[in-house]
Hints:
Blueprint (H helix, E strand, L loop, with lengths): L14 H13 L5 E2 L11 H12 L12 H15 L8 E4 L3 H11 L5 E5 L4 H9 L3 E5 L1 E4 L2 E4 L1 H7 L4 E6 L12 H14 L2 E5 L24 E6 L12 E4 L2 H14 L5 H12 L3 H22 L14 E2 L4 H6 L5 H12 L1 E2 L1 E2 L15 E4 L5 H15 L2
Parallel strand pairs: 1-12, 3-4, 3-7, 7-8, 8-9
Antiparallel strand pairs: 2-10, 5-6, 9-10, 11-14, 13-14
Helix pairs in contact: 2-9, 3-9, 4-5, 4-8, 10-13
Amino acid sequence: xxxxxxxxxxGTETAxxxxxxxxxxxxKGNHVYPFHLGDxxxxxxxxxxxxxxxxxxxxxTGYCPNGxxxxxxxxxxxxxxxxxxxxxxxxxxxxQPGGKPVIGKFIQAVMNPGDExxxxxxxxxxxxxxxxxxxxxxxxxxxxxxxAGFAIDIDAIERQIxxxxxxxxxxxxQNPIGAEASPExxxxxxxxxxxHDLTVLCDEAYFEIRYSGESRxxxxxxxxxxxxxxxxxxSKKYAMTGWRLGAAVGPKDxxxxxxxxxxxxxxxxxxxxxxxxxxxxxxxPTEVHQIVATLKQRRDAAAAALxxxxxxxCAVPEATFYLFPNVTGAMANRGFDSYDxxxxxxxxxxxxxxxxxxxxxxxxxxxxxxxIRLAYSGIDxxxxxxxxxxxxxxxxx
Length: 397
């Protein structure tokens, strides 16, 4: 059978390949410490579960409006308006089967073939995939490491902009780095967006997975509300990764297009699952707070263990459930030049499974520092400490 030429431009989420390798290693009787995938081993809050079960029993198993049930759209608009200090209505919300579909539908809605799109790299690999699959030109921008963590390389963004640049993808509270933009970074980015009349995807998947302070949204800045579409997901806050529920939130004209794409792609998002999400938004938040508290304990344990390893330095982000340690020294100490050789040797010797910088976009020419990503959302503290203790012993041997 002939495969369409355009499929060659479609990337993938290569973290799942690491997951498959870890599963094969475990199938041989080995113990695996799973830091590779941003899945969660925490239970979905009972309010969400009971809300979905009630909806099933009430017969909410058929089609529903392509943009989502009105109650959920209204609740999302109210919740995001409150947390972001802006004003949305249900007309600004299109419910999706997860957060990821927002990326492709946003690109289809606002980008023409040949347009240039600025996207974070290292970053979530689906940005790059969807830009190129739909005929755009992907322009990567990176991050600058400091003792405090990572900052967006805004100079790199400015250098790349041409008359063809149309879109900026902004993932604040970032996967894989965990970086959070400062107010100064936001102001500089907003000035660029205004000057060049850019449209922005604000990927806020981790907006409420934070351990101190308050998250800020780019849409809250002057003139940004009508230029931005928010990617919202229930996967992280409510530990609903497998439920597949999210939303696109933004100007009505773009949201109407995204809802039209819903009709073409999946008709509508799962009916009864939307009632589970609604119950989570409107119910007791105690279990959500417990999820975040557990993740904070895991972050602290993992960061402390990594920073105790010779040749490793790890910033401690205040949000997300990822760490992005610099392992340049550790790789050099053990004689590794290849990311894949290093990763596989660590798995074989210790059972610790993680992703590397290579799983989050094509490297930018001139990169010299080496990084790995560890997700601590799916591994308990005792396993974090045991696994990273074994990693320390291997890297320092």
